[in-house]
What we know:
Elements: H1 2-8, H2 13-29, E1 35-38, E2 41-43, H3 45-51, E3 55-59, E4 63-65, H4 79-87, H5 89-96, E5 102-103, H6 104-110, E6 115-117, H7 122-134, H8 138-148, H9 150-170, H10 174-185
Helix pairs in contact: 2-9, 4-5, 4-9
Amino acid sequence: SFMKQMYSGEIDKADVQALQVRFFSAQMALPQPTIAVVDGPAIGLGCTFALSCDLVYAGERARFADPHVQMGLVPGDGGTLLWPLLIGPARAKEFLFTGDPVDAAEALAMGLVNRVHPSGEVFDRALAYANRLAAGPAATIQAIKALTNQTTRALGEQFIRAGLAMESVSQESDYHKRAVEAFLAGAPVRF
Length: 191
């Protein structure tokens, strides 16, 4: 798995962090609307990637979580920016403090996703919406995206750099070291 590769040294953490900053910046700068389709687990960085899209369409099997805390880590990949912007700080803290997952129905109710559709239909529904946008006034839609993303974009790169710095510090903590040992041994993580 990705985590085992990262903790064994096969993947350089600095490369992953640089990719995260570049991805977030590119995502915010992209003029066209982006739509994530999630029909399974979107966990950690995958969740952040999905939530950084302009719209999130979820299948009934979708689950969203940012479980950094369960590994003794500060989530530095943008989750601490995106969750509060989407669902409010108090609600976001509830999930970021525990790493608990949110199913598709709950994600819709709290405003984390835009739509939930049956698993066999979610991709086609998202594609139909994308086609609707593509047939619309492109410059107007792009201007709306630019304006509505202005706060996120202004905070984004700086916020992610600070978050990744805090995550790096947390990677040196005893909490994280114990969590990695347990994870690699296949044992439950306990603090």
